[in-house]
Specification:
alpha+beta, Trna Endonuclease, Chain: A, domain 1, 5-stranded mixed beta sheet, 2 helices
Length: about 120
């Protein structure tokens, strides 16, 4: 089960990368890690750094893929983004997006891009 979940996630990240590149994003990193933190995709727009959380499912379930981005996931993603910005000395606003992908029966993906999906929580 874990292997299948990983395969679905990796396939979704490849689709997400292509989706973003076709829309003018420059993908900087995929699966960037810092300690226990990970950013699925880090991309660039001209004046913006975009951190993209990719959620992929192989079929519709009770819960939409983006609903898996809970408060704990948001905190981890924001912490990882902070580490990324410091590591690469980036002086740009950061936007947090979610790409929700559902694999269709014909092998294609339904993609929903939720821009500005969440903000860094106030400490």
């Amino acid at each position: 089960m874990a292997k299948k979940k990983t395969e679905i996630g990796r396939a979704g990240e490849a689709v997400a990368r292509k989706y973003l590149e076709q829309r003018g994003y420059r993908v900087l990193h995929i699966n960037w890690r810092y300690g226990h933190y990970e950013l699925d995709i880090v991309a660039r727009r001209p004046d913006l750094l975009v951190v993209v959380e990719v959620k992929t499912r192989d079929q519709r379930r009770i819960m939409e893929p983006e609903d898996a981005v809970d408060k704990a996931k948001i905190r981890r993603t924001v912490a990882a983004a902070d580490a990324y910005v410091q590591t690469f000395d980036i002086d740009l606003p950061v936007q947090f997006d979610i790409l929700s992908l559902i694999k269709c029966s014909d092998g294609t993906y339904h993609v929903e891009h939720i821009e500005d999906a969440f903000y860094a929580p106030v400490q």
